[in-house]
Specification:
By secondary structure, this protein is α+β, with helices and mostly antiparallel strands. Helix content is about 10%, strand content about 25%. The longest helix is centred in the N-terminal third of the chain and has 14 residues, at about 1-15. The N and C termini lie far apart (about 70 Å). Bound molecules: zinc ion (ZN). Zinc ion binds near residues 56, 79, 81, 83 and 165. Zinc ion binds near residues 83 and 165.
Length: about 240
Amino acid sequence: MIALRTSIPVLLLLSTAILLAPDGAAQAAPPGQTPRPPFGLPLEGPPGAGRWVVGQFYGNTQGAYRYREEWYRAGQGLHFGVDFSVRCGTPVLAIGDGEVSGIDRMERGAGPHNLLIYHPEGYISLYGHLLEAPAAYIGMPVKRGQVVAFSGDPDGTCASRPHLHLEIRSLDHGIAYNPVMLIDADWQTLALIGPRSSFETDLAEPRRWQTIADQPTVDFWAGPLNHYARPWPPDWE
Ligand SMILES: [Zn+2]
């Protein structure tokens, strides 16, 4: 009992070591320690063949550029989440502690079903293209790593392009952040085994927005960011 009681202050110190700001930056990390992103991955276990891989990263992807006038118009022509290619019915995990703040909200909602979780650090996570309406209720407390839903397919077939679309938004839903910057994961390895296609290039500024971490924050409805006069790959009709 004595050992248990003396360890409590240590635990408290550890749990308060990282303070998080709503703008996504972790601050006040102890000297010599790198702040860790606040959230975890929304799928369990290691990635890989037969399990899950990243199908499309956040940002100025070639896929988003191609559909910038249709699907991604509200997101400035960018893919405003990360897609995890995964078999239908795979458990989806809460990326952090919080409480359920939305179920099947369809404005920019990634149907046919979705779930939104409020996180006290100042974010909302959205889990889209779910298989079915999550068995949850508004205000339901959730813990990081808890199964909150099951993955599906935007086309409702489970055969066309099953994947989980994950977004991290501001509390007013006006901003979408790059999940790569906020989720503690080995993103470089995920990029190596993930999508072969990369980011759309503006030949007038070819180095801009070309890596998984160097992507702009999306301001919903602020207008397109990527109407390029000289795009590569070229525009298509
Ligand atoms: Zn997506």
